[in-house]
Amino acid sequence: MKNNFNNERGAALIMVLLTIALIMLFSTVMMNSILSNAKQNDVMDHHNRATHIAEMGATYVKEQFKIFLEETDVRLNEDGISTMVADTQTKIEQVEIDPDHPDRYFELDSDFTYENTSEGSKVSVNIIGHDDEFSEDITLTFNLKKGEVPIDDWESDSETPPSPPSDPDYYYDEDVSWKNSCPIDGDSTYVIKGNFDTKNCSDGEIEDLFLDGQLTVKSSDLTVNGTAVLNGVDITTLSKLIIKGNAYINSVLTSENNPNSQFLACGHARFKETVDYKGNFGVRGYVIADKEMIFSNNPVVFGNDAILKGGLMLDGTDLEVDGDLTIHSDRTIDHLHTGLGGDIFASGDITVHTPDQDSPFKNPDIQSFHPGADVTATFPDCHDAPPLEQTSEPVVEIEDGSY
């Protein structure tokens, strides 16, 4: 009887021990599962938070792109977009998401791709959100538009130049001549009914200039900070004429066989009569020329689209156009080519209208024509010029995105 009792007690002990072992085993499994789920949830929280931070970065980058395009005057080419990305990266460095968690931040990758289209420029960038050692990125494609005035609108608007103000700072019925000393009067508007001559003076500066007569710049530097409406321009002998705003040239513009001169318009320009220029010649904005443009000796640079209604002649120099170029010629395409005397490089299309063809030639296969060229027009003297006219605010749209 005693042995049976001891056997029962032994069996009960074994059962208790087995039960405890099973409970401990299941508890360990359950704790491991709970800890694993908690860790997975923690990892998921980090990834989700990193994704949300990247989305915050996407919103911030979009707004900064728009602000940059509103406040700066850059072309939407590789250099301009690179500058915009670098500027945005600098702004991002100042952003603090959570003061208690400095390891939560977003960044904009320096690498980007872009494509110019008829609707604007498509730019793809990568935005990375960070939370501790966890990171998530978003690739976004933006469609960017500068809101610039179309060249057709400028052609129509510039047909009639603006009228002078009724109350200018200075009004002259007669000729005006500045010799040896030019005033620096960058905030004053001048209306001159006669001719205007500058000679042997440097750093002359005015705000706006409305001139009925001839402007002659000889051994002088003259800067017009705003609009210039001129009836004939002659720039000679180591002289420089810089127009920071729009230029309306209603008569012949010439350098009088002098290659040591410079003409620069930082805005758009309309030339109603022949341009025959041997010095450095540049226009940052649109160019509309109603008569022939003849350039020789020195480089010619247009920073935007150009329409040359009277044809083009180059003599020992080249023309660079950071945009589309349209030429209306009274010669056949072959005669235009043989008589051109230089090369044309355009970042956009080159379109040529000739009298012997009903349809224009687009990007003709001619040795001296280089459409789609790598042209980056820069105008250092325009650094403080007003931005080119815009019809609306810049457009920054997110066209596509992927996680």
Structure classification: alpha/beta
Number of strands: 31
Mean pLDDT figure? 88
- Label the overall shape: elongated
Which stretches of 5+ consecutive residues score pLDDT under 50?
none
Question: How would a crystallographer describe the biggest sheet?
Answer: 19 strands, mixed
Helix content: 10-25%
Oligomer: single chain
- How many distinct helices? 4
| Overall structural domain count | 2
* Beta-strand fraction estimate: 35-45%
The gyration radius over C-alpha positions equals 35 Å
* First and last CA, distance: 77 Å
Describe this structure in words.
The chain has helices spanning 2-71, 78-92, 151-157, 333-338, and strands at residues 104-117, 120-131, 134-145, 170-172, 176-179, 184-192, 196-199, 204-211, 215-218, 221-224, 228-230, 233-236, 239-243, 247-249, 253-254, 261-265, 269-271, 275-277, 280-283, 287-289, 293-296, 300-302, 306-308, 312-315, 319-321, 325-328, 344-346, 350-353, 361-362, 369-371, 395-402. The mean pLDDT is 88. It has four helices and 31 strands. It is an alpha/beta fold. α1 crosses α2 (78-92). The radius of gyration is 35 Å and the shape is elongated. The chain has two domains: 2-146, no CATH class; 152-382. The chain has a 19-stranded mixed β-sheet that branches.
